[in-house]
Amino acid sequence: MSNSDFNSTLDWPVRIYYEDTDAAGVVFYANYLRFMERGRTEWLRALGYEQDALRQVEGMLFTARRINLDYLSPARFNDLLMVRTHLTHLGGASLTFTQDVRRDADGILCCRGVTNVACVDAISLRPRRLPTTLATGLKCC
Fold first, then answer.
1. CA 65, 33, 50: angle at the middle one, nearest 5?
2. Looking at residue 92, what DSSP letter applies?
3. Pick from 7, 11, 13, 101: most CB atoms within 10 A?
4. φ and ψ at 50, to 5 degrees?
5. Contact at 8 Å (CB) between 65 and 116?
6. Cβ–Cβ < 8 Å for 35, 80
7. Please, how many CA atoms are within 13 Å of residue 1, restricted to the half-sphere of its CB?
């Protein structure tokens, strides 16, 4: 399914703390990955899916397979950022998201990413198809 088939987008706020910044006082580049992970987790939660329940009930996990990030403008201590998460592709065993991280005060885009996550078996960590109930639920969003 392509991005035109989905309409579910979630905005998730993230406040920048000292621990998120580097020696120059800007958000350390790797922390954008953490912010985006939270955005994807909260996106799933908003749709009624908890990752720990997916592991326990369905025996599956999500793992990052590919990430492409563009850093566009720095964020600094105490900025409030908004992480916008949008599902753009639903495959048989993977999900692809676009995510924008903007400063809430002025809407400036700080970082943009495309993340592909794969569904894997919780024990073997080998790729597997998305559970039917999950795939069906995500097609509706």
1. 70
2. S
3. 101
4. -100, 135
5. yes
6. no
7. 21
Q: 3-139 domain in CATH 3.10.450.50?
A: no
Q: Which of 5, 11, 20, 22 is catalytic?
A: 22
**Per-residue pLDDT tens digits for 112-132:** 999 999 999 999 999 999 999
**pLDDT number for residue 1:** 44
Mean pLDDT, rounded, for 82-103: 97
pLDDT tens digits along 13-46: 999 999 999 999 999 999 999 999 999 999 999 9
Catalytic site residue 52?
A: no
C-alpha–C-alpha distance, residues 131 and 55, integer Å: 11
Give the burial class of 9: count Cβ atoms within 10 A of its Cβ; 0-12 exposed, 13-18 middle, 19 or more buried: middle
The pair of structure tokens assigned to 81 is: 């950022």
Residue 79, Cβ density class (10 Å: 0-12 exposed, 13-18 middle, ≥19 buried)? buried
Cα 110 to Cα 30: distance, rounded to the nearest angstrom: 13
What is the H or E stretch that residue 118 is in?
strand 109-121
